[in-house]
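User: Can you predict the 3D structure for this chain?
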Amino acid sequence: MNSRESLSLWIILSAICFAQMASGGLHAQEVFYVDPNGSDSNPGTAALPLETFRGATEKVREVLDGSGNITVLFRDGVYSFAETVVLGISDSGGPNQAITYRAAAGASPVFSSLVPVTGWTSFDSNILQAPLPTGLSHVRYLQDASEGWLPRSATPSFVANEDGSCVECTWDDPDFQDNKSNIRYPNSFPAPNWSRATQYDLRESQHAWTLEILPIASVTAAQRRIFTTIPALYEMRRDTIEDDIPNNNWVLNSLEGIDEPGEWACLDNTIYLWPRSGTSDIAVPALTELIRIDEGTPDGNAPISAAVQNIHFEGITFTGGDFYAMKEGDVTTQHDWSVVDQPTALLRFRNAENCSVHKCTFTKSGSTGVRLDRHAQQISISQNTFSFLGREAIVLTGRGPGLGDVNKNNIISHNHISSIGREKWTAPAIMIDQSSGNSILSNYIFDTYFTAIALTAPRQLAMLSVGETGGPTVPTVREFHYQEIPSSVVDFVQSFEELSEGSREAMQFVYNRDNRVEGNALIDACDGLGFLVNGYVYISGAQRHGTNFVERNFLHDLSDNLQNNMAFYSDSDQDSCEYVGNMILGLTVGDSPSPFPLYVTFAQWAESEPPTPSGRILLRANATVDTTFDVHIVGANTQQEGNLVNGTGGEAQFLELYRQSYLALCTSSGTPGSPWPGSSTMQAALASEILRHGGSVPPCLDQIFVDGFETGGVSQWTSSAPLSLLGPWRWESEKMGPAF
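Assistant: Here is the predicted structure, written as structure tokens:
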């Protein structure tokens, strides 16, 4: 049985299991009620409900016996979290027992760590001030219930070392960190009040594909030098930067930076705000993480004896978490896009299996919506809404290389994701790192500053570096799980006569493979803010001899996005990736300083491509319409078959693939974000190609999908959406079968 068949079987069995759970087919046994007006001393009945989420978990723990489902129903109201609630092994459901935390019928419960800000008085001109609530000292997120996002104050941007001179000129000395922990601002920079510098952050972007937010440690005004508490990933100086892509830097959180409605700062236990719509509904967060499902092993790379299992969330709104600022010792994913195994999310699964998040809402929070850390398997994140988040919507991060392929076989499907990365501008909407065999299906991703979907893992240069040094000895090289590369992998690299060959073969110890990105709508994503560059879908650091699959996704740009218009970016450090039946509409190069292609495709290794290339990027039956570009494809070891370049170039042998792409655009009210803008234009182009080759345009037939939580099993859906947009089922000749 191959991985796709295994995943199909898991989906089928999970659907049946969920259906039985919802309908009471597995000894439906306990139901508890929770109401903000209840009491945790109550029994949790409909008449005498509990009051808090923690109280509900304690009541559940009392009756856990490994059999019989337990459902906790939350009524309308706000449930406040003063501390993170952790669900561990003692809170797990058994093989025949689901623990479900869900909204009561017709209710919209809200989980939040927000504390109201009151006592507003005038400060200066348009700016008001109010004390932070008792117990809080500094926050990086402020919420106005009437607004989508309130940006922290920012000074005008500046370019490091405007005169072009270097600072210490130690580019190639990895042991000398001054270039990474300080930046020099120009004479022309309108400096804020440096006496409060330790309460400021530096937002810095030294390359077009990276941006970090680093707390400021001190400032030496005489030298015009800003020092940060942790080093940046790259040297913060102008002379190392490409001439045609300037760096950009801002000081955040100063009073001087508040110059527009909605901007704010947190200084000396006080909030300063230029309100957009009053102050009656302003609040600050107390936590970065509300709920964590966690087996409890502190070392995320250590084996576990058992995972937390069978815990489900449905219909809950999660909101009001603080922005997580990186700290010394953090491990990060590629280019510091995300952190590894840290409390950045409102809801976090760590060393967990067979859990789900269904029809929940994650909105207005400083960091991430949902995280799956380290060991995370058979977890479904489906039909949720994510919006106005400071970091990512969804993050999966596994163990370090060679330490176990344990973050795998999860499903992210039918989610509506918008306005992501509002604080950390280079946060992908969906970040998959060191994780394999996942399905990212039928999500609608709209309005992102950076990449919509990223699949990454440690890359060959990381392996080469540990081979050269004998281990991860350089603390500033934190990306690619560099600090988590074990001695066994170092020994493997060093066992080869040529380290470049050893580092290439060591890519077998990373876990980015067999992921499927299928049927997603990426609309006005990755706009780049005029200076960031990457692809809508980005893949790099794939497992040696592994393949990822990107199929029948629809990309449509609603704006003229300056530089950032690469549709797909398969970076180096991979053997194989297949792009089949994807559709690109209305992307334009814009005001770009240099040519950009639609596809960047490298099937090669960074330092050691063998004489006969072993890799291949397959581009088959992809279609573009109304799209401008300087170069269609740039890359190495790329195989092209049957692509439609602005509507021309198709081949009859790929007729069925064109039909499948056409079906992927059949939208209905049941698909996220439908009707998709531009989908009818793309369908018309595909129909023309299908007819040109003598084929018939397929009708948008009714489909069925699995929603066991709501309907108790497989239900008929009156929908014109295709299989890939509604889930892993279809109806053919009166026989139900898996999509794969």
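The longest strand covers residues 210-220. Confidence is low (pLDDT under 50) at residues 1-13, 15-28, 165-176, 702-740.
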